[in-house]
Amino acid sequence: MIDGLLIGSVYGLAAMGLSLIWGVMDVINLTHGSMIALGMFGMYLLFSASTLNAYVLLVPAIVGGLILGSIVYWLAVNWVIDRPQLMSLLSTFAVNMMVIGIGTAIWSTSPYNVNFTLPGITVGAYTFTGNHMAAAASAFVIALLLELFLYRTRAGKAIRAVADNRDAAELMGISSTRVLMIAFAIGIALAIASGALVSTLFPFTILSGATYQLKSFVVTVLAGLGKPFGALLAGVLLGLAYQRTGNLYFSIGLHAGWVFCLKIFGAFTADVPRAAVWFWGTGKMIDGWLAFIVLALTLAVSSRLPVLNKRPAFAISS
Fold it and tell me: Which of 8, 247, 282, 292 could form a disulfide bond with 236, CB atoms 3.0-4.6 angstroms apart?
């Protein structure tokens, strides 16, 4: 169960960028998976070229993600804003295919790994690896920083204002083009960061991002748009679902279907405890108070989806 919590936090971080871009810009970013893969290889190259701790190298990886996100925005996204959503899908999918094609030509599809290990902790019969704990802590810190940025800084409030009402924000002197570029760059940086963290946990290829992109869509549906900690908790729920099944070779579609059913059941019945017990134990008693609290909090967050309560994804506050 603890492994599910730790890995799930990385799933949540992977979904934050997708959720932010979708919620602010109404653009479904199909470059998300390829950007996660670039984050994996970015960490691999940085770690190979230096002797620093891999988690310290997360900082330059995020900076590189901000720069890359700005470039992709101006090349492929800016001109499809406010156009039919199919245009943004085609534009971002084209970038995705180019990144995968170039990456395959450079690195092929052979697996790579970041050979970095932190000492773990043993408690009784359980051993918690240092890499999993460091990745989970990094994901939580990044989510906290994003939350503070969105609600405590001028730029963050501008992003929420544009997400709420772009025309009104323009009348108040906010440049929506610049704000959308910042939001997209942050979303790509979050994808890069999640890929960098995943590279310290598992082997990867240039095609690995597609799996995490699908998980990100599941987490985004579960948590709602523009909720960093909601995405983090929903990612933890997905990690717990994987851990609960035990057989990770099962189709991801089966897991995604379970999570989607949980979302619908919890949102429309508004019965959080019963939904948690129904999903987690499939008719049996829940396996511990920690799992119950995590599931209850996740459902409480997910039940506040804008589609269900007809409120904007971002609430404007002073």
Answer: 8
